[in-house]
Amino acid sequence: MSRDVQQKLEILADAAKYDASCSSSGSKSTRAGSQIGSTEGMGICHSYTPDGRCVSLLKILLTNYCIFDCQYCVNRVSSDTPRARFTVGEVVQLTMDFYKRNYVEGLFLSSGIIQNSDYTMEQLTQVAKDLRQKHRFGGYIHLKTIPGANEKLIEEAGMWADRLSVNIELPTELDLKQLAPEKKKPEITQAMHGIQEKIEETKSDRNAGYKPPSFAPAGQSTQMIVGATATSDDAILATADELYTAHELRRVYYSAYSPIPHADAALPGKSPPLIREHRLYQADWLLRFYGFDVDEIVVREDRNLDLDIDPKLAWALAHREYFPIDVNRATREQLLRIPGIGARNVKRMLSIRRHHALRTEDLKKMRVVWKRTKSFVITADHNPSLGDLDRQDLRQLVTPKPKQLTLFDAFGEALKGEF
Amino acid sequence: MHIVTATDFQDWRDTARRFLWAEVPPESLRFNRIDGQPSLFDGGGVNALPQPLGSVKRNAVPRPFLSLAETVSFHRDSGRWNLLYRILWRLTHGEPNLLEITTDDDMHRMATMEKAVRRDSHKMKAFVRFRKVDRDGVEHYIAWHRPDHRIVKRVAPFFARRFKAMHWTILTPSESVVWDQKTLQYGSGVARSEAPDSDELEELWLTYYGSIFNPARIKTSMMKSEMPVKHWPTLPETKIIDDLLEDAPRRVQEMIERNEGFQRTATDLIQSQPELSQRLDGVRELAQQCQVCDLFRESTQTVFGVGPTTAKLVIVGEQPGDSEDLAGIPFVGPAGQLLNDALQQAGIDRSSVYVTNVVKHFKHTTTVTPLGKKRLHAKPNAREIRCCKPWLEAELDHLSEASVIVCLGATAAKALIDPGFNVTRQRGQVVSTERCNQTIATWHPAAILRTPDKALRLQKLQQFSSDLALAKKRLE
């Protein structure tokens, strides 16, 4: 590889580092006929950087030239960041070379918008197509679709990619107007809708016994920047909920607005609100796997999540009438609402209690967060902490000691299915 | 007491099954510590097997147990065979639901072992780093890895599926495996010194690793828990971690300091004097004070738009030129002359039109010619355009009767119609924008004047005239 490619890589990987998503999971089987590369459901993190984030995919931009002027973005046209552009062939070669050494699980390719949306989308698709056709590459490919690109182009991209994503960018239409005037919410949601329809069509063809060409088998995801505007957490979660229900997204990534070089003075020049981002991931988890409704998660009057305690604990403290829960009688839905107990432990509890009554010791052995859980549960034996439920200072008793959190604690905990 | 050995899972399974059928309780059977030795029952040892008791009911062993046990069999703990036999015994002797009671001591121990093997396998899939070597023109990829458990046979099929069309070898201290694109061949352990110690691509990989790291968010404990330090020696990227961390605070500081916004924007200026900004004349007066971007330094004055506030047609150009800068009025130089002629031809009275530019200051470079210094027009960049845009917005806010906007050239069309606008392909179309539902883009007169090819110049001129005629038609 030439010096030139190395310089481009430096610029175009640097420009991609603000994108939160890096997951490579979801594609259950490898494409038929693949010679190099496989996907088997679970993604693999091949390395970790000192920011605690995993390196799963070669995450780069095809180019960081962009005709748009989104103020939160380092690549906006009015920023004087150094620019570079890979050729399709260079990205393909780089992906194959990295993959063959087992550095990465595949490619995550995004791009600034050059010439126009269609042209840019064609270039991205060409990379994926060459990897699949010329190199018989069976590894993971995630393409970021370009807002406003023609539906036919997206359709083709979905044939080669495992996952497609359209960035919602900012939580509300007003935020978009303020910081990304060239991006329009209807355009974004329409693109998501198009992808969703095609995914469903493929699924129903398969169920009907046909063999349709694969289309984004790992589904679609999106990213939302938080903290660049004053929008509150409940509005952010409402947008996420809408995306999950209306567009069946696999994941919504929350990316705390991080200071970027060459930033506009109108934006906060400070470190990203990592704890807030972490709380949003926890709340997101409650939405998807714990049966919470979007309008009950935020309990504070200012419509933001509590930064000191996790949202499930915050809900429990605000709804003490719901407790104590008898772990030997409660339904699955009720067990899922107990602070300190994750979905996996709820499953374990349900199977153990078929054979013997759950005691305090059982819960401790399962490694529930007993310090938090103990005040909320009735067990088969005596639980002396139960009396705390009526104490005024219960919040202080169960609040964990402050520690610095990052987004990727949330990922770690999310993987374990508990927090 | 029976003392036996097991080499691998299949061997243990066969042995355990026969002892189970013979009703030998776990207390009377011991799998001894010698791994990798042939079982007592290979060949002549068979006679030592207990005879099955005919009357015993052969309880079914739950399938999940077998797959758990197989995973546990790769664990290094020499007590694993005994533990598995004990659980097998309990499952078939009155505790069929044992697998569900995860808090049971034996179950807990088995689960811990199973988890350790799964984690170790996952880390092997992640942290094997192949290095390419050339053997007589054939590419071989060789890795050295140090797993905690004897998992090579468990993980090798994964690598065979993934790197099907490659020749590869994975070496570990106690086992090794070679894939020749057809079969997996297992061998004994190898010292690290046997493996290649570099690869041509590693520098590129380190470049990537260093660039994708965001210095604004540091979390080394998370990194170490997911990427255990024991694997660091075989991961090339870990060499630069110290440097990255050391440099991080400086990089963050630089990121924060290097913002490029304009502390004071044209909007601030407009809002600072509400009584002036109520009138177009007042806005014009304010614009004379604008020093938001650096262009004011080199130019003579702000060249604001001219024309009646009741104008129905608004023409927006790019930026004042040399003559305009001196006169303080837009479109008075050669390009302005061309515009005037074309307007007249289209039957439009220039005095009824509001004419302005996207950028209000002259941008230029200076060259010295035999005739003296000459100021050459330079294209405004995106930052200058953005910084000047509030003035254009304010002008348009006051032109409430405008029904057609004509953009002259790409800069104006990009600012008002679409950032991706292409004049060559999209000129002459009437499009609806947020500002005005009849917006038309055409050539900039200066671009026509600069077209060297005469035929092409005439063609552009004709298009320019017909676009203005279209604008005139749309006014009616």
Automatic annotation (TrEMBL), chain A:
Its cofactor is [4Fe-4S] cluster. This is DNA modification/repair radical SAM protein. It comes from Aureliella helgolandensis. GO terms for molecular function: catalytic activity; iron-sulfur cluster binding; metal ion binding. Keywords: Iron, Iron-sulfur, Metal-binding, S-adenosyl-L-methionine. CDD domains: Radical_SAM. The keyword Transmembrane helix does not apply. InterPro entries: Aldolase_TIM, DNA_rSAM_put, Endo/Exo/Phosphatase_dom_1, rSAM, rSAM_sf, RuvA_2-like.
Automatic annotation (TrEMBL), chain B:
CDD domains: UDG-F4_TTUDGA_SPO1dp_like (cd10030). One of its GO terms (biological process) is DNA repair. GO terms for molecular function: 4 iron, 4 sulfur cluster binding; deaminated base DNA N-glycosylase activity; metal ion binding. InterPro entries: DNA_repair_put, DUF4130, UDG_Type-4/5, Ura-DNA_glyco_family4, Uracil-DNA_glycosylase-like, Uracil-DNA_glycosylase-like_sf. Residues 304-462 form the Uracil-DNA glycosylase-like domain. Keywords: 4Fe-4S, DNA damage, DNA repair, Hydrolase, Iron, Iron-sulfur, Metal-binding. Gene3D superfamilies: Uracil-DNA glycosylase-like domain. It comes from the Bacteria. Belongs to the uracil-DNA glycosylase (UDG) superfamily. Type 4 (UDGa) family. This is Type-4 uracil-DNA glycosylase. It comes from Aureliella helgolandensis.
